[in-house]
Design brief:
It contains ten helices and nine strands. The chain is of the alpha/beta class. The chain has a six-stranded mixed beta sheet with strand order 1-2-3-4-6-9, sandwiched between helices. A three-stranded mixed beta sheet has the order 5-7-8.
Length: 259
């Protein structure tokens, strides 16, 4: 059914697996669309109470696929892509299940935005977490501004977004960005334990509280997604973005000019 992800259901648990391991699960246009469609499909599944999201291979997700962004023969349609990214973020935020992101390796850019949208984020201790859009002259998308602000507040969100630094799991935990750090290779084990805890609890009460709290914020998320789409489209046309991308490809330090 899907080319870039897998959806597997076991009892009351769904597994959404990012499945482009040769690209460190970098999100191309197809993966963004498939994730949006997948989360939408889970909206009405009352048999599921937990959704786990994780990556195949060496990483959770390295973020947006820069190779596809740079492809001169088949350039990425940023406006179309932003629609799928917005659908993805909204569908994930409004899922009527407890969502768990299980991070190993890299979780960067859109991959990090998606993780932060989940109810419970587990990261293995050597994983690398980065809201690194600024390095290529872009702004966070996928609701990155919203989810970051919800977790750490506006001043800290600005600090983290503007720095664009790569954080180790314990740093992210200390900043309040994630819920749990595990030893290398133990992320899935901890996700299993948390899932068991959720399923043994009065889960309908948990989900009712989630719906109340998220419903209050949904209009704000929608507004943020609209503003991110407009800003991203504008930033894609900036000289600083082109310089950032070129520097990334050439593995050198970018020289930004504020244009």
């Amino acid at each position: 059914m899907y080319e870039t992800i897998r959806l597997e259901k076991q009892g009351r648990i769904a597994h959404v697996v990012l499945n482009r391991p040769n690209s460190m699960n970098a999100m191309n246009g197809r993966m963004m669309k498939e994730l949006a469609d997948c989360f939408k499909s889970l909206q009405n599944d009352q048999s599921l109470h937990v959704v786990k999201i994780y990556g195949e291979g060496r990483a959770f997700s390295a973020g947006g696929d820069i190779k596809e962004m740079m492809d001169p023969d088949n350039p990425m349609d940023i406006d179309l892509v932003m629609k799928d990214i917005s659908r993805l973020a909204k569908a994930l935020y409004t899922l009527p299940q407890i969502t768990i992101a299980v991070i190993h390796g890299a979780s960067a850019g859109l991959g990090f935005s998606m993780a932060l949208a989940c109810d419970h984020v587990i990261a293995e201790e050597n994983s690398k977490l980065a809201m690194n859009f600024i390095g290529i002259g872009l702004v966070p998308d996928g609701g990155g501004h919203f989810f970051m602000k919800e977790r750490v507040g506006v001043p800290k969100a600005k600090e983290i977004i503007w720095a664009g630094q790569t954080l180790k799991a314990h740093d992210a935990l200390a900043k309040g960005l994630i819920e749990e750090v595990t030893a290398e290779g133990r992320g899935m084990e901890h996700a299993e334990a948390y899932s068991t805890e959720v399923l043994r609890s009065p889960v309908l009460s948990r989900l009712a509280s989630k719906k109340i709290l998220h419903s209050l914020k949904l209009a704000e998320l929608e507004q943020v997604l609209e503003m991110e789409a407009a800003a991203q489209s504008a930033m894609r046309k900036s000289k600083d973005h082109l310089e950032g991308i070129q520097a990334f490809v050439e593995k050198r330090k970018p020289e930004f000019s504020g244009q």
